[in-house]
Amino acid sequence: MQALRNLRDRVLQQEDLNFLLTNRIPRIALTRFMGWFSKIEQPLVRHLSIAAWKLFAELDLSDAKKQRFTSLHDCFTRELQPGARTIDTDPNVLCSPSDGIVGACGRVEDGQVFQAKGFPYTLQELFGRSVLADSLVREYRGGTYVTLRLTSSMYHRFHAPHDCRVDHVSYLSGDTWNVNPIALKRVERLFCKNERALVRTRLAAGGQVVTLVPVAAVLVASIRLHFLNVLLHLKYRGPNEMPCDAGFAKGQEMGWFEHGSTIIVLVPAGMSLCEGIAEGRAIRMGNPLLRLDAVPAQQRRESERVNATATATATATATAD
After folding, report:
1. If you count Cβ atoms within 10 Å of the first and of the last residue's Cβ in the chain, which end, N or C, has fewer?
2. Taking the complete model, does pTM exceed 0.70, yes or no?
3. Is residue 135 among the annotated active site residues?
4. CA 298 to CA 51: how far, in whole Å?
5. What is the per-residue pLDDT across 161-206, written as a single tens digit (0 to 9) for each?
6. Is 60 considered catalytic here?
7. Active site residue 159
8. Comparing C-alpha atoms, which of 185, 232, 155, 196 is closest to residue 23?
């Protein structure tokens, strides 16, 4: 087994070959196939699939709520044992919504952020044709962003970073490029091309707008949000703008990916990265991620006014559709 893993590592560390094997393939067709295949509940298929997964990834199921799974999909979307993650209780801290590896992060400068060094993209491109795009671009001037990459073997569910209410979701269909570091250094504006959702939340205490952007990838193009009675995936043909009203406590589960991918967290000016948050650091759901600073009342009222206008527009658009 160790010899096979050593061979795997040697192959995948060759960047050209890694990029070829994970991107120069029929990405969407393969992703749809995996969505179907992973749900097969035949015992032999399940056993061989999970065994192959363990060969290609450092899969640790020791903190899973159960140890026997009905399918590969059941293992992908596993729950954790109670107490497996510690939620930071400091009211001035936003905790990480998921397990992951910190990617590009820092200040939003002139509406621009980075997916990797030398590979910028704009928030306008990330938000695409969402009715929230213009208001969110204004919201995050001088704000902060953090990219969290979930590897295939990680816990795939994501949680509320603070006590908050979700008031709108925009779904943007797209491609399924791999989101590993090799692809991020080769495909420009990758996050803006892949399937993704914009989940706009408002913090319960101060009203600040925090947006989570789950981004799909090859083999994972399904995003489940508990507060919406739909599964967002490549074949989804429902409304792209979904006003909603769902409250969450800090650390409460919001949804999951059906494999592993990326979450981009965006916060307005008045918040900053917690100490030690830097590219390459492994982080667990519930760990400190961002810290709230004092937010001037005038800034907060302006944020509320802008987002109330955007919500009214989105509701009118959804009704018209």
Report:
1. N
2. yes
3. no
4. 56
5. 999 999 999 989 888 888 888 889 999 999 999 989 999 999 999 9
6. no
7. yes
8. 185
